[in-house]
Design brief:
single chain, alpha/beta, 17 helices, binds beta-D-galactopyranose, 9-stranded parallel β-sheet, 10-stranded mixed β-sheet
Length: 658
């Protein structure tokens, strides 16, 4: 198993490298990522390449059995690039260029930037293609987390992209509905950048997001082409940002060997990091396979102010949470806190003093455990029977028109996701055009953009025996952001057995909500209400107010061999979502691995005839977890009994007896 750190040899005197490599080796590290911001060190002047320092660093590491991942350095441009080619700097809305000195501040349609980026990539690729210590590559760094450029070249790029998508202006005018507000275009050149999510035509805004995403994917593709051709034996990945939403990550992942991602879940007071789990599942879903952690939290971090310090045991626990969800490699950010620059307080395995202290010892312990576990977990992954549709386009379209103030896509998904998590049921995150057929249960919350094919596929899924749940604002829009000319829920009407003629947001009031037909409980409906008419569906929850008596809040409909559920509001109580998750799992015949106590995460990796259960205690209290199977806890090597005891931030990795 690859276990390592993000290392910046250029930040330290060369005499220190040997000590670093030795300490890494002693900690069990066998890989480092290097060079992803070292452009100026490798190309101090245009066309003059210098790799001697990096060669020596790689040699030093290699002598200790430590391999490297090379980052293409294009996320931070040298001063000479900006000085010589000012058009490479992103242009702000007011027409001025950003000031050089940050990273991620370039224009992506700039020919000069694209050329220079290709050149440094090629120079590195040619130089390191045959290097036995180079395991693979990371393209750029966290693509998408940067300035948006409003220059004339980006505007023209957008116009060209539209021309390729729509072919004729007539088609674009139709797709965007430009009969509104005198928006019809007579020439492609008239089209402006519609970047104001709250004010511009939502169809235009959606296409702008698509264009921006494609542009970034294309930027990566330039580098990929070079790396594939020149370094065929070395892998190529990219460090994604989990729940980051500006780029269509499915597209960005498409041509990579695997996805890796950067995980920093230590903010606020200690609690269950549901978000880090959901992000891991999104990452696993991008290519439907396991992923790497390219940057993992190893200390307090921040650029000006910083987060709390991970408590003893927490660094290990955070890392195990990811392995439990499919991480096959663990790379901690960063090896050592830098004494200079913007990230001085982004603490690493070592502090400014370079001494191997508490955090080093915790990482050493964790790395040792991973090497011991590697043989068992290799070739295993999660195999959930439930899935949640995760859609970037709905996300973007909702940013322009959330319908109710509190409609935040991730929060909507999390209400369901967290309930399944608490129940010990894992889910896959899938794309809207994936075949849902492989799952017994599919949730499609807030699936706002719903082309007819998607709706038809989901309806067919239910008819064939699938269990589907969808909810508020799903199926409102077509793929170009126009409202469907149908009574909601449109083509899902039959599968869900309902009709929604009216709806409202609830800015400062709530409704009472009561369960029905065996789905018992009393809750509050808030933020938004569909006035759902149950045409054929059974009512599972209704609203309490006089004018809402005819309408349902939650419905269940038998359709073909399956069931279609609709949730027409947002519920204020977590317990409601727990009850709903239990109802859905029961109908789908999905059983949890075990019943985890509050604050304990339970997942299972399977493969090669093995079933390995991971238990992660996210709390500071001791937890007792009942085990409905016999097995061996692999870290201690001990046979398990009726239950496992997890200490504060404790973990257990249990192979179930065959
Ligand atoms: C990450 C980034 C790293 C480092 C870190 C701390 O998101 O990839 O390069 O900058 O944040 O800011």
């Amino acid at each position: 198993m690859y276990v390592g750190a993000d290392y910046y040899p250029e930040h330290w005197p060369e005499e220190r490298w040997e000590t670093d490599a030795r300490l890494m080796k002693e900690a069990g590290l066998n890989i480092v990522r290097v060079a992803e911001f070292a452009w100026v060190n490798m190309e101090p002047e245009e066309g003059a390449y210098r790799f001697d320092w990096l060669d020596r660093a790689i040699e030093t590491l290699g002598a200790h059995g430590i391999g490297v991942i090379l980052g293409t350095p294009t996320a931070a441009m040298p001063a000479w690039v900006a000085d010589k080619y000012p058009e490479t700097l992103a242009q702000k809305k007011d027409g001025t260029r950003v000031t050089w000195g940050m990273r991620k501040n370039n224009c992506f349609t700039s020919g000069a930037y694209r050329m220079l980026s290709e050149r440094i990539t090629r120079a590195m690729a040619v130089h390191y293609a045959g290097n036995p210590h180079v395991a693979g590559w990371q393209t750029d760094n966290e693509i998408g987390g940067h300035e948006v450029c409003y220059c004339a070249s980006c505007r023209r790029g957008y116009q060209d992209w539209l021309r390729r998508r729509y072919g004729t202006l007539q088609e674009l005018n139709r797709a965007w509905g430009t009969h509104f507000w005198s928006e019809a275009f007579g020439t492609w050149g008239e089209i402006t950048i519609p970047d104001d999510a709250a004010a511009h035509n939502p169809s235009a805004y959606l296409d702008w997001r698509r264009f921006f995403s494609d542009l970034n994917v294309e930027f990566q593709a330039d580098q990929l082409r070079i790396l594939r051709k020149t370094c065929p034996g070395q892998f190529v990945t990219h460090n994604f940002m989990g729940l980051f939403r500006e780029i269509n990550y499915y597209d960005l992942a498409e041509d990579l060997d695997f996805v890796s991602w950067d995980n920093y879940p230590v903010h606020g007071k200690p609690g269950v990091p549901y978000g880090a789990s959901m992000a891991a599942d999104v990452m696993r879903g991008l290519k439907k396979k396991n992923f790497w952690i390219m940057e993992q939290t190893s200390g307090t971090h921040g650029w000006g102010t910083f987060t709390r310090n991970p408590r003893p045991g927490e660094i290990r626990k955070i890392a195990y949470q990811q392995v439990a969800r499919g991480a096959d490699a663990m790379i901690w950010f960063r090896w050592r806190a830098c004494t200079a620059g913007r990230e001085q307080y982004w603490h690493g395995v070592l502090g400014h003093d370079g001494k191997p202290l508490r955090r080093y010892r915790e990482i050493k312990q964790t790395a040792g455990e991973y090497h011991a576990l590697a043989e068992k977990i290799e070739g295993t992954t999660l195999k959930p029977q439930a899935a949640i549709v995760y859609d970037y386009e709905s996300h973007w379209a909702l940013a322009a028109q959330p319908a109710y103030r509190e409609n935040r896509y991730h929060e909507v998904l999390a209400r369901y996701y967290d309930a399944f998590y608490r129940a010990g049921i894992s889910v896959d995150m899938i794309r809207p055009d994936d075949d849902p057929g492989g799952y017994r249960l599919v949730l499609a919350p807030d699936l706002y953009v719903m082309p007819d094919e998607t709706a038809a596929r989901l309806a067919e899924y239910v008819r064939g025996g699938g269990i589907l749940l969808t909810d508020c604002r799903s199926g409102v829009k077509d793929e170009s952001g126009l409202c469907h000319e149908r009574t909601l829920p449109g083509l899902l009407g039959e599968a869900l057995g309902i009709s929604i003629e009216e709806y409202e947001s609830m800015p400062d009031f709530e409704y009472r909500m009561a369960g029905a037909n065996g789905f018992d409980g009393e809750w509050t409906a808030r933020h938004y209400a569909d006035w759902v008419t149950p045409v054929k569906a059974e009512v599972l929850a209704r609203y309490g107010e006089w004018h809402m008596e005819a309408f349902a809040a939650l419905t269940r409909n038998r359709y073909g061999d399956g069931y279609g559920y609709y949730m027409g509001t947002v519920c204020g109580e977590e317990a409601f979502y727990d009850a709903l998750a239990a109802e859905l799992a029961e109908k789908a015949g999905i059983r949890p691995i075990l019943a985890p106590p509050a604050g304990v995460e339970a997942t299972m990796r399977e493969g090669n005839g093995r079933k390995i259960v991971f238990l992660v205690n996210h709390t500071e209290e001791e937890k007792e977890v009942g085990l409905p199977f016999a097995g061996t806890e692999l870290i201690s090597g001990k046979k398990t009994g009726m239950s496992a005891r997890l200490g504060r931030y404790g973990v257990a990795v249990i192979e179930i007896d065959r």
